[in-house]
Amino acid sequence: MYKVNDLIVYGNEGVCRVEAIEVMNVTAVANDRLYYVLKPLYRNGTVFTPVDTKVFMRPVISADDAQEIIEQIPTIETDILYSSANLLSEHYDKAMERHDCKYLIQVIKTVYLKNQIAATKNKKVSETDRRYMKKAEEMLYGEFAVVLEMPKNEVKTYVEEKVSAIELRK
């Protein structure tokens, strides 16, 4: 069970702070069931979820883990699929459901490479690719921003600079 002020990754919401753990005083809700009151860090609003929910939750990674993952980015393989939008969505959904930073990076790198290939043919990647890349970036950069203690809008540049430096060392 998480504690008040813990930072967690909650489903597709991204990083949230546990604001409270309480019994809900709502007629339609069982009075003995505990709920997390979550405050998403990157949007307004509050999320109420049972402590025993089936929705994915995990603690945010550590700053050391984030740095280690950034070091591994050059070795994370792309996974290019050229198929129907439905199959592509299903494939990306499976990667996203893992809530694992390395899989988010794989999605980002894959769409980035597809963008480069499409550009050589004066084309663009599909809306499905763009949508999942944006979603993966939101999730990854949100978590990295929290643990690396930097504004979310600076994370992409920070990661790109670190990866460039790693590749120059080779």
Chain-wise SSE layout:
Layout: E1 7-10, E2 14-23, E3 34-40, E4 47-50, E5 57-59, H1 63-72, H2 85-97, H3 101-120, H4 127-148, H5 152-169
Antiparallel strand pairs: 1-2, 1-5, 2-3, 3-4
Describe the structure.
The structure is a single chain. By secondary structure, the protein is α+β, with helices and mostly antiparallel strands. Strands 4-3-2-1-5 form a 5-stranded antiparallel sheet. It has 5 helices and 5 strands; from the N terminus they run E-E-E-E-E-H-H-H-H-H. Helix 4 packs across helix 5. The model has no long low-confidence stretch (mean pLDDT 93). 49% of the residues lie in helices and 16% in strands. The chain folds into 2 domains: 6-59; 63-168, Methane Monooxygenase Hydroxylase, Chain G, domain 1, CATH 1.20.58.
